[in-house]
Amino acid sequence: MLKVDGIDVFYGNIHALKGVSIEVLEGEIVTLIGANGAGKSTLLKTLSGLLKPKNGSIQYENKSIAGKAAQTIVKTGISHVPEGRRVFANMTVEENLELGAYVRKDKQIQKDIQKVYETFPRLHERRKQLSGTLSGGEQQMLAMGRAIMAKPKLLLLDEPSMGLAPIMVKTIFEIIEDINKNGTTILLVEQNAHMALSVAKRGYVIETGRVVLTGSAKDLQASEEIKSAYLGG
Ligand SMILES: Nc1ncnc2c1ncn2[C@@H]1O[C@H](COP(=O)(O)OP(=O)(O)OP(=O)(O)O)[C@@H](O)[C@H]1O
Ligand SMILES: [Mg+2]
């Protein structure tokens, strides 16, 4: 479904991604693991069109999307939930969800909003509340709900568990699995390697802009290197 081959991404002189190659097959959950500053968010931003690679190729459903505008890429079915769960603070929960569907022209939008409410009952309770006043966990639910409203084929999630209480982390990961079971392919960036590898099929480890290790989630969980660096020994 997605094939990234040898991309280089720069911020001015900073060489943030160095020849990165990854692949995501339809139906998978694939996770990217790495320390702060490794380049995980940079990779997701490049996939969603917020950054342009200098070299290399990005094939999505057998078409090149490298360097295309974000508005073009979202229409092909890639939806990005950025780090820090940015919601429109001065809009209500429901307005944020409606906005998520702005790329769609079909008549199922209201029905899909109801589906999001079924997935996240908390959002239904808070549907008239201004999003800026939601708790962190609720904002993460809203950010994910808004991304789902675009009906993505490929969902890019950047650290959905960041800053959440353990119980909320568990809920968010259950929902990630549900979204995947309902047919959405997922590329998941996480520092919580333990949770990420428990839901993912495969993973890539990124260190200072390079992919240094890849394998099945099972193999990565068993690897001594991963255990000591990312799973707390
Ligand atoms: N706008 C920017 N301008 C300059 N450098 C940047 C910019 N954004 C990111 N970088 C640098 O690029 C590198 C990769 O950053 P990135 O945000 O992709 O890391 P990350 O793996 O997502 O880290 P974290 O886990 O902390 O979110 C870092 O060294 C960072 O300082
Ligand atoms: Mg990041």
Automatic annotation (TrEMBL):
This is Branched-chain amino acid transport system ATP-binding protein. The keyword Membrane does not apply. SMART domains: AAA. InterPro entries: AAA+_ATPase (IPR003593), ABC_branched_ATPase_LivF/BraG (IPR030660), ABC_transporter-like_ATP-bd (IPR003439), ABC_transporter-like_CS (IPR017871), BCAA_Transport_ATP-bd_LivF (IPR052156), P-loop_NTPase (IPR027417). Belongs to the ABC transporter superfamily. Keywords: Amino-acid transport, ATP-binding, Nucleotide-binding, Transport. One of its GO terms (molecular function) is ATP binding. Residues 2-233 form the ABC transporter domain. It comes from Cytobacillus purgationiresistens. PANTHER family: HIGH-AFFINITY BRANCHED-CHAIN AMINO ACID TRANSPORT ATP-BINDING PROTEIN LIVF. The keyword Electron transport does not apply.
